[in-house]
Amino acid sequence: MSDAWQVLNTLYVMTGGSYLHLDNDTVRIEIERETRLRVPLHHIGGIVVFGDVLVSPALIARCAAQGITITLLDRNGRFTARVEGPVSGNILLRRAQHDALLDDAKALSLARSFVAGKLRNSRTLLQRGARESTDEEDRQALSAAVQKFDASLRTAAVVGNMDALRGVEGEAARTYFSALNAVLKPATREHFGLAGRHRRPPRDRMNALLSYLYTLLTHDCRSALESVGLDPQAGYLHVLRPGRPALALDVVEEFRSVLADRMALTLVNRGQLKHGDFRITEGGGVLLADDARRAISVAWQERKKDTLTHPLLDTQVPIGILPMIQARLLARTLRGDVPAYLPFVSR
């Protein structure tokens, strides 16, 4: 894997022990005193560093003077701090974000994009499951669910208000979770089968696993939004409530099946998680055991190092920075730099 990535004029440095410093008008990245990359400052709009990456005082001062924001995340990708100069455009970005909340047409357009991303990615997961299934009954169930998603996508594109859009999303979610068992290997269904989606508390092992992965994904999406200066609580699809990261939850929707659900299915189908990795509470809830939670967290971080081709940018990027790319695309949409927000859609 490369030591650093430049996407949408943002430099991402993900390798621990890296040292960024100013070399004339260039950012030079060193690892163990070996130069790995040079990037001209005028090509950079922002710098994001993960974990124990060092940034020289001279580079910090120069970036502040030129309006280049430096965002610090921990090694798990959670937001730590942001370093910026005295003049910042974030207030204008947040004003645009909040103004869009008051504009029914803009809010609906953004919410529609989040739902479209969720539906398309969920459909792809079910379609792949149908293609790979060796059981005719499972294949038919998954194919029927895919057809329902086709109808949901058509309806979501034309509904005229937020309540109707949320209704389409909710019905599609019920279809999705009722079909998800058919993607599990038959031998795993005794212990990992699920009957719908329930969270507080999870009533089966698969729901407990999904809830934990969704929590990790929400942290990543919230960090991504904070890294570009957006307010993670001011969302469009999810209803606003005190303390609720509604915008982070909006962005989560397009990544649920791509990142969390696929990982859950992989862990179960490959036997990496056993039914004994969970414990049952007195009230009937199901929780992950501590060792299993740690193992899943490690697998999650390793998965984020894998790369794929971003369909819009047509470039290879680590999976871990996908939420950051989408956060920057969303910021550009709110500022009016692009006409509409395009969600991440897996291939």
From TrEMBL:
Cofactor(s) demanded: Mg(2+); Mn(2+)
Name the record gives this protein: CRISPR-associated endonuclease Cas1
Binding site for Mn(2+): E169, H238, E253
HAMAP family: Cas1 (MF_01470)
A Gene Ontology molecular function term of the record: metal ion binding
GO BP field: defense response to virus; maintenance of CRISPR repeat elements
Protein's UniProt keywords contain RNA-binding: no
Gene: cas1c
Keyword Transmembrane carried by entry: no
Keyword terms: Antiviral defense, DNA-binding, Endonuclease, Hydrolase, Magnesium, Manganese, Metal-binding, Nuclease
Pfam families listed in its UniProt record: Cas_Cas1
UniProt-listed Enzyme Commission number(s): 3.1.-.-
